[in-house]
Design goal:
The chain is mainly α and about 170 residues long. The protein is built from nine helices and three strands. The protein has a single domain, classed as 3-Layer(aba) Sandwich (Rossmann fold). The protein has a three-stranded parallel sheet, sandwiched between helices. Helix 7 links the parallel strand 2 and strand 3. The chain is globular and about 45 Å long.
Length: about 170
């Protein structure tokens, strides 16, 4: 959720960041989201609670990563919670996200920026959001081949290379 936090920070303090790198995140601007998507974010707990815990962990891991390493990291993180704890945590985060989007603030990117997204990202509509975000704003986007939603765990060398290249360009 770091990309969302950074956008909220820029909204409140537009001159505080020297650069912004979004890794598998999405824009907070309301115009990118459909009403039903916001509704779904607010009601994640109902959906997640309906799944048996072993399936939620399995699909959560496979939905966020393409590599065995990335899947294992996600599974291990999820497995550190009980089902109730995980559903509470995720639904609370998505509810806050939905409220930030509904606030319909400008959320302008006021510094050099780079969008990074896994080509195989299956988490929600992250790929669609990033495509439209880049097309409508002119922000550069780096697609990470063979990577899912956690592209930095699937292809860390490509993500790190993109970050270094970006930093060299702005420093």
């Amino acid at each position: 959720m770091g990309g969302y936090v950074a956008q909220a920070l820029m909204e409140k303090y537009p001159d505080c960041l020297a650069g912004f790198i979004s890794i598998d995140s999405a824009p907070l601007k309301r115009k990118y989201m459909k009403k039903w998507e916001i509704y779904a974010l607010k009601n994640t707990k109902i959906l997640y609670s309906a799944y048996p815990w072993f399936l939620l962990k399995k699909y959560g891991a496979k939905g966020c990563a393409e590599t065995a390493y990335g899947c294992q990291l996600m599974y291990t993180m999820m497995d550190s919670y009980t089902k109730k704890e995980y559903c509470e945590l995720v639904s609370y985060g998505f509810k806050i996200l939905a409220e930030a989007i509904e606030a319909d603030l400008a959320y302008e990117i006021s510094c050099p920026a780079l969008l990074i997204c896994g080509e195989k990202d299956k988490a929600g509509y992250t790929k669609r959001y990033n495509t439209v975000w880049a097309n409508q704003t002119g922000l550069p986007i780096q697609w990470i081949p063979g990577a899912g939603h956690n592209s930095n765990t699937d292809k860390p060398e490509l993500v790190n290379s993109a970050i270094l290249e970006f930093l060299r360009a702005i420093l």
